[in-house]
């Protein structure tokens, strides 16, 4: 039996409940619905990076070229910082050991390994103790940009002699002996005022540009990044020290490129292929070659992955073929090679790869 009071009150109660439910839907709704964007970079990672970048900028602006001591010491020769970005074992390290052998004074090495990846092989001598504090990285995410900037900042801070910064991955191999690469970087002085240039691919004519620009949303890139200044290019670059500082110093474009992509546009989410070329093309186009020294084979690509060479394909002819370039300089590195290629690569290391 219901009391007459409840019967009379129920329309009022219903209306009240309805009214109360509005803020509940607003507050909880977004949490219950699937997210519209891919995961954003954690704030803690961002603030750690900012602190590191500030230190790198500060130390780079205070580091004066030696003047008095110049007369007493020989000025150190410029070094190349090799920056390995990886989420697995650096299987080709025996090949890199051969490559670096005898050139200790001309390079430094730094490795950013995703802390969630499982590395099983013990590091070979040159890689030992060269792992920098790393954070999680994912595909289709600006975390790959962060990792590259972290490597640049760490190398800037570590040694003022680091004058070139080469970004590589675990699936990259060298194509020429170390001295050939070194001479190439140092002999190029076609930048403004006779400066060395960065070897970074910069293009604006690819069909992917439109989708890549809108991957984070419809008008989100403006006003910092107008569509006509948006560029594409491989992240496997060699930057000069001046450009490495420029990249670590940037906050303006990063504010936009760090935005996570929309889930529904995840197939267009490769921010690391746009951030660096866009930034450098805006700030110093004449200081860049606009092509990369790292060869990659995009024939028959699968889901954004280039052709991966397998052991049966490795030969002296392949190496000679991969070196060939239409640009002024021959290719110095190549990707991607499957881990199983180590053995056939080692077999031709002395006779082909490390001989010109
Ligand atoms: C795009 O531009 C680059 C360099 O400016 C050039 O090498 C390439 O052939 C061009 N590609 C197309 C499809 O026009
Ligand atoms: C994009 O999302 C779909 C479905 O969620 C997934 O299958 C695919 O692997 C994702 N692609 C990339 C490049 O992350
Ligand atoms: C590029 O990859 C394709 C297969 O995807 C292969 O047929 C071709 O020989 C490769 N090119 C070079 C120069 O290795």
UniProtKB/TrEMBL annotation:
<keyword id="KW-0808">Transferase</keyword>
<dbReference type="InterPro" id="IPR003406">
    <property type="entry name" value="Glyco_trans_14"/>
</dbReference>
<dbReference type="GO" id="GO:0016020">
    <property type="term" value="C:membrane"/>
</dbReference>
<keyword id="KW-0325">Glycoprotein</keyword>
<keyword id="KW-0328">Glycosyltransferase</keyword>
<dbReference type="GO" id="GO:0016757">
    <property type="term" value="F:glycosyltransferase activity"/>
</dbReference>
<protein>
    <recommendedName>
        <fullName>Glycosyltransferase BC10</fullName>
    </recommendedName>
</protein>
<feature type="signal peptide">
    <location>
        <begin position="1"/>
        <end position="27"/>
    </location>
</feature>
<dbReference type="InterPro" id="IPR044174">
    <property type="entry name" value="BC10-like"/>
</dbReference>
<keyword id="KW-0732">Signal</keyword>
<keyword id="KW-0472">Membrane</keyword>
<dbReference type="Pfam" id="PF02485">
    <property type="entry name" value="Branch"/>
</dbReference>
């Amino acid at each position: 039996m219901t009391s007459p009071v409840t019967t009379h009150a129920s329309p009022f109660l219903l209306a009240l409940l309805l009214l109360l439910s509005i803020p509940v839907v607003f507050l909880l709704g977004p949490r219950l619905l699937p997210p519209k964007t891919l995961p954003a970079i954690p704030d803690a990672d961002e603030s750690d990076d900012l602190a590191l970048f500030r230190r790198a900028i500060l130390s780079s602006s205070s580091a004066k070229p030696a003047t008095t001591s110049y007369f007493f010491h020989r000025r150190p020769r410029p070094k190349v910082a090799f920056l390995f970005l990886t989420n697995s074992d650096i299987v080709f390290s025996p090949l890199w050991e051969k490559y670096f052998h005898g050139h200790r004074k001309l390079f430094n090495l730094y490795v950013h390994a995703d802390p969630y990846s499982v590395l099983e092989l013990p590091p070979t001598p040159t890689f030992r103790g060269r792992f920098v504090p790393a954070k999680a990285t994912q595909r289709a995410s600006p975390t790959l940009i962060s990792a590259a900037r972290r490597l640049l900042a760490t190398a800037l801070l570590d040694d003022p002699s680091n004058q070139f910064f080469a970004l590589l991955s675990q699936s990259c191999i060298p194509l020429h002996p170390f001295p050939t690469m070194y001479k190439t970087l140092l002999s190029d002085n076609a930048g403004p005022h006779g400066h060395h240039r960065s070897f970074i691919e910069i293009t604006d004519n690819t069909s992917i540009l439109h989708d890549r620009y809108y991957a984070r949303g419809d008008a989100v890139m403006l006003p910092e990044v107008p569509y006509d200044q948006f560029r594409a290019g491989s992240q496997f670059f060699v930057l000069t020290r001046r450009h490495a500082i420029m990249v670590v110093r940037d906050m303006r474009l990063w504010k936009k490129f760090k935005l996570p992509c929309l889930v529904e546009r995840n197939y267009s989410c490769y921010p690391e292929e746009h951030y660096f070329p866009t930034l450098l093309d805006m700030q110093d186009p004449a200081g860049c070659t606009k092509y990369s020294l790292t060869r990659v084979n995009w024939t028959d690509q699968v889901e954004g992955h280039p052709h991966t060479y397998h052991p049966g394909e490795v030969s002296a002819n392949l190496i000679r073929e991969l070196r060939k370039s239409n640009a002024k300089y021959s290719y110095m590195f190549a990707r991607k090679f499957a881990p199983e290629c180590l053995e056939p690569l080692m077999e031709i290391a002395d006779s082909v790869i490390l001989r010109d």
